[in-house]
Amino acid sequence: MPEIEINPTTRIEGHHSTTIDVQDGQIASAKSHMEMFRGIENITVGRPPSDVPQITQMVCGVCFTSHRKAATLALEDAAARAGVFSGVPYNARVLQNVMEGMFLLWNHAIHLFTLAGPDYSDAVADTGYERLDPNGGAGYESALSNQRTLLQAFTEFGGRAPHPLTYAPGGVVAQPDAETMERVRERVESVDEWIGPTDAVPEVLEAVRDRRGPPSGASGLYDVLSVIVAAAREDADEFGVGPGRFYANGMFYDEGGGLVFPGGVVSDGSLRDPSRTELLTSITEDTSHAWYTESSGGHPQRAPPPEPAPDKEGAYSWGKAPRFDGRAVETGPLARLIAADEDPFALRSRLGDDPRQSSTLNRLIARVQEFLLVRDMLGEWLDAVDVDGPLRAEWTDDFTGEGAGLWGASRGALSHWVRVEDGEIANYQIISPTLWNLGPRDEAGNPSILEYALEGMAVEDPRDPVNVMRTIRSFDPCLGCAVHVQAGGGERFVGDLEPPRPGTGAIDG
What we know:
By secondary structure, the protein is an alpha+beta fold. It is about 35% helix and about 15% strand.
């Protein structure tokens, strides 16, 4: 069999590659390589705590607000434990719900239309769903326009993305007036009109299956459902199957002091909601196959910021290997909805067979379901913000303490870990969702979630490993990617691949 190299692989954030060995038409082994050193944690050391949200949001140009949010939570936790902070006003939490909700819709739309969605378009896979075609599809172009509207609404509170300044330890520093809230509401309503009513899912699903084209007032809904119907027809429920272990942090605040989407852990078929103490003590990082010193691993509250070891024997990634109770766990919208026991319209049951199965298809469906759930709550959060109410509690950087910020980012469970000594950052660690899903093997050789999901997968044509790419993208990794296929026969194929172009003649209008 030939060897094929795709470099670079498009439609993934950042720099990442995957090497897979194919024997007799199946992937015998896989390695997930993170090809860049981050080092943001090191930059925070010695700085005052209030600087940290601004620095850590620069980890990523797509997940900026998630890191700013997790950083403020970590600092607030540390200050509260030190006895110098009494909590964030609920009014500020509601405004954060609004911003996080708009951000999640924007981020999921990128995934469904720009990153993963084209894999199921007519241009790439001859699915007949021409509206999903990159660059020229009507659905694709509508999504781009509405993504812009969401970011315009976001900037009313937070300044220009990707460097918003609104979140700060103690709450938010924005003070929106009634006119600002009305401008945001009008933009959100515009996005609502694009998507269409959620309760029309059954009717629109049938329209998608029949390729009748979008019904009036539900073009966005038609397009996101087209992605999952096309994926189901490509048998995406049968590949990219993970071990069925999940981990989710909660997200979005409710009036009772809890979280709208609860956290949870699924292991050995059982769902449970561990206490915060159990959660914090169960998370570790393994550096056996990472280009970091061994001391950079262990518990994130105790390990120092990452210490590079680029010549380390046996290492193949700049990512560490996070583990929960010593095991790799999958995170993302699928984990979140399983933890919440949610399967809206039974889409995963009907299209993905088992709502708890870890598969390429169910990851896509869960993003669509979460997209609709959050859209439906966003209007209520907007109405709940009191423009005359408190938005920030008193804050001081002058304390000594340690804490952790756990949040559900668009891509999955995110955690920031901090230790402050005499008003300066003494230690900082970040464990991102992509580390959980795409990290390297651990000391015992146990694969990461992506490596597990790829091993055993059939590759009928090494020149076109499309289902490998679909699986990698189903995790919505925040990394750039290059995929290398090592064939068992030792042959090598090198050639230029033309990127897909929008097709013609599709029938879904």
